Amino acid sequence: MGTTRDFYRGNTNVFWDVEDVSILSHLDPELVYGNIKSDLEDKGFAIDPYLSSTVAIVDDNVSETLKNSYSRSGIRFIRLPGGTKYERVHNMSVHTLLWALREQNMRANLIILSKNLGKDEQFTSLIEAIKKKSDYNIVFHDPTSILDNSVGTPDAIEQIKDGRYRCSTCKSIIKEGESSSRNQ
């Protein structure tokens, strides 16, 4: 098994356990993605947009508009029914196991952004079992500082027509899949 340093250039994926979906409407999706990326890069992890992914695990009460705002910024949502602690732990466990199967035979990082999953005995037992059987680096990280620096409005980008959007902050027009000029 490699040292933590051996994994820094490995494939890095982020699972964000969104415990309270109401916070999503108070955050700027581009800032969230940018802050996650820069925070992890500051810790030495390589975030390659072609090999890495950021996934938010949310309950099914998230609007399609909000989902699309986050998706345009690089954060994919996995909607799951219900939102109880048990259901979230179960769903995060399933997605973590699926990640481990996809990444087998590779050095890979999984960053789990969660305030509480690192304290859940069942989930941490699963993580320890995965780490023993494979060459993965799995790290828990409290997302509070990242989210505190991401306050904004996801409505900052309004849809105009034909897959084009206008950024209400800088007034630039962007096409789906592009980012606004404030990140450039």
UniProtKB/TrEMBL annotation:
It comes from the Eukaryota. Residues 12-140 form the NYN domain. This is Uncharacterized protein LOC104727081 isoform X1. It comes from Camelina sativa (False flax). The gene is LOC104727081.
